[in-house]
Amino acid sequence: MGIRALATREPGGSQGAEEIRKLMVEGEPGRWDAITETLLAYAARADHVRCTIGPALVQGTWVISDRFSDSTFAYQGAGRGLDRETIRRIDSAVLDDFQPDLTLILDLDAKLGLQRALTRGNAENRFEKFGADFHERLRQSFLDIARRNPDRCRVIDAGGTEDQVAEAIWAAISRRFDL
User: Fold this and answer.
1) Which residues of 6-43 are buried (b: 16+ CB within 10 A; e: fewer)?
2) Residue 177 lies inside a defined structural domain of this protein
3) What is the pLDDT of residues 92-146, one digit of tens each?
4) What is the mean pLDDT of residues 148-171?
């Protein structure tokens, strides 16, 4: 459609954030407590916004990020039990209310999602080691985020084929941005 776009990810997306990513997603589950994970996530996010997202937006480039701050509310909040208000205060200090224009939440049965993630077979599996109950809390948290933010969030059924999921994603983007 002639729209300049940049694909990126979190944690990661900039040199410094990629270094922090390794600390967060590799190793054993007990490596960090919830507040340490949150501070690492926001340190990575601050660098990602400063070095990658901000400059792209200034140039008029659309940014497509695999995860952003909602993931911290889900993973470290609902998943690990850190108080939502603590995360909100850190989020406000780091991002100053900066948020995506659209968030797509790819919804899938937690056990099936965990099975899919475990087939990747790489060292970035620390969160998968937290188990099925943890992942069900994540799923419910993301669905709650979508319910509380209907203007920004769209839930996509990720249980279909890749083509079906891609079609649903395109439909949500097209409607949101009148494409």
Assistant:
1) bebbbbbbbebbeebbebbbeeeeeebebeebbebbbb
2) no
3) 999 998 999 999 999 999 888 888 877 777 767 788 888 889 999 999 999 999 9
4) 96
Neighbours of 87 (CB within 10 A): 22
Is residue 116 in some structural domain? no
- Model confidence, pTM: 0.92
Cα 42 from Cα 100, distance rounded (Å): 16
The distance of Cα 2 from the centroid of its chain, to the nearest Å, equals 26
Q: How many CA atoms lie within 13 A of 108 on its CB side?
A: 18
Average pLDDT over the chain, rounded to an integer: 94
Judging by DSSP bridges, how do beta strands 62-66 and 5-9 pair with one another? Answer: parallel
Minimal CA–CA distance to 9: which of 85, 76, 66?
A: 66
Residue 43, domain member (yes or no): yes
- pLDDT for 123: 65
Give the domain extent around 90.
5-103+123-150
Contacts with 136 (C-beta within 8 Å, 6 or more apart), sequence order? 110
The confidence score (pLDDT) of residue 88 equals 97
Closest CA to 68 of 92, 100, 90: 100
